[in-house]
Amino acid sequence: MRGKLLMLTLTLVLFLSSFNVLVGFSQGFPVTLTDDTGRTVTIKSLPQRIVSLAPSNTEILFALGLDDKVVGVTSYCDYPSKVKDLVNQGKITVVGGYWNPSVEKIIDLNPDLVLGSTMMGQNNLQTLEEKDIPVLVLDPKTIDDIYDDILMVGKATGTYDKAEALVDQMKTRIDAVKSQVIGLTKVKVVYICWLSPVWVAGGGTFMDSAINIAGGVNVFSELSGWKSVSPEAVIEKNPDIIVYTSMSIQGSGEQIRSQIKELFQPTNAVKNDQIYLLIGDASSMLERPGPGIVDGIEVLAKIFHPPAYGNTPKIITERKVTIQIIEPPGYSVVQVEAVSEAKEILTVEGDVKTAYKKLVEKGVISSEIPPIPKDSAVYESLIRLYGPKLERFPSVEGRIQLLYAMGILEV
């Protein structure tokens, strides 16, 4: 089927030309994006050296298959496990903490893209800008914002197709949760991320969105952002369920549950023993606004609605791992990798011939396509529709095949 790609493409081209229609655009560089702080950032070429300044950013990069492009992370970036392996092998450098990254270490890594966060510090951001290092700051407030950030990273790194596939998978699973809990009684929930003092998720946070999707009501939704509240305020809200997360805790899970019971004794959650802890690795499913938030939402739905899902342990310590990139239909994993490699060869080196050979070798395209003469109507139609180097052609593999057939071997 793939061997006939060009013949089908040419038929489509001629059909479209009769209607003077332009189809989708393939991604190219430079690309200009607006990050979550409203900053306009231009990325001049396909990034080869990326620094991530938040665990969620790192998870997005690795989910998009960019682990070989990541050269720096924070000390909190620990998922997937391959991150720590690459750090131990010296292939990735730890540039500091989440709140206090070393701007000197970042600059020394000579990155061509930094994925930052609002916690990185305005002075650090300004210093990197002065060094002409593009920095995209991610700060999602809702689940939809998480989708948008994944797509933005895809655009910034030349992996938009994978980003779309990942977002589609996340949406499918979240839609399944919505279908499961629709019509069920919504439970009152408080989400706590710190006990001394008590910090809760308010409205306008991705956690507020997650609670709503999973069939709950955030009792502090009238607050904006993450807020410190008194134990008395929690008691007054009288939640049905208390959810607590923490990457690191002092004492055992049962000791934390006892502390929560003591703090919020009059609440229905304590009276009915509806206190749930996601601690250690498990906490990252809810604390990090990345692909793993879907796993966290599924866990919340199970906590909120046992009749629909069955009982859930009161203390969860292990992270559920289910998110995988959906590969484009019709391609094997090897062929998907070949397309990605060919795209990089074309974008970075401009070498059409090598990119073409890569695709033929893996069976993505056929080597039996005749040349397209420069003085032919087909050649003229292609240039008119897609530009002198076919830069507007909708698929990278089709573009490479056409360029080769047209004798355009450098772009």
How does this structure look, described?
With 411 residues, the chain is an alpha/beta fold. The chain has helices spanning 5-19, 55-63, 81-88, 103-108, 122-130, 143-157, 160-181, 206-213, 231-237, 253-263, 268-271, 284-287, 293-304, 306-309, 333-349, 352-361, 377-386, 396-405; strands spanning 31-34, 40-43, 50-52, 70-73, 93-94, 113-117, 135-138, 187-195, 198-201, 216-218, 226-229, 241-246, 275-279, 315-316. The chain folds into three domains: 2-26 and 328-405, no CATH class; 35-139, Rossmann fold, CATH 3.40.50.1980; 183-316, Rossmann fold (3-Layer(aba) Sandwich). It contains 18 helices and 14 strands. Strand 8 and strand 9 form a beta hairpin. The protein starts with a helix and ends in a 6-residue tail after the last helix.
Helix and strand composition category: alpha/beta
Number of helices, where a helix is a run of at least 4 consecutive DSSP H or I residues? 18
Q: Strand percentage, roughly?
A: 5-15%
Major sheet attributes: 7 strands, mixed
Task: List its salient traits.
411 residues; alpha/beta; 3 domains; seven-stranded mixed sheet; five-stranded parallel sheet; 14% strand; disordered N terminus
What's a concise summary of this model?
The chain is of the alpha/beta class. Helices cover 44% and strands 14% of the residues.
Topology:
Blueprint: H1 5-19, E1 31-34, E2 40-43, E3 50-52, H2 55-63, E4 70-73, H3 81-88, E5 93-94, H4 103-108, E6 113-117, H5 122-130, E7 135-138, H6 143-157, H7 160-181, E8 187-195, E9 198-201, H8 206-213, E10 216-218, E11 226-229, H9 231-237, E12 241-246, H10 253-263, H11 268-271, E13 275-279, H12 284-287, H13 293-304, H14 306-309, E14 315-316, H15 333-349, H16 352-361, H17 377-386, H18 396-405
Parallel strand pairs: 3-4, 3-6, 4-5, 6-7, 8-10, 8-12, 12-13, 13-14
Antiparallel strand pairs: 1-2, 8-9, 9-11
Helix pairs in contact: 1-17, 6-7, 7-13, 15-16, 16-18
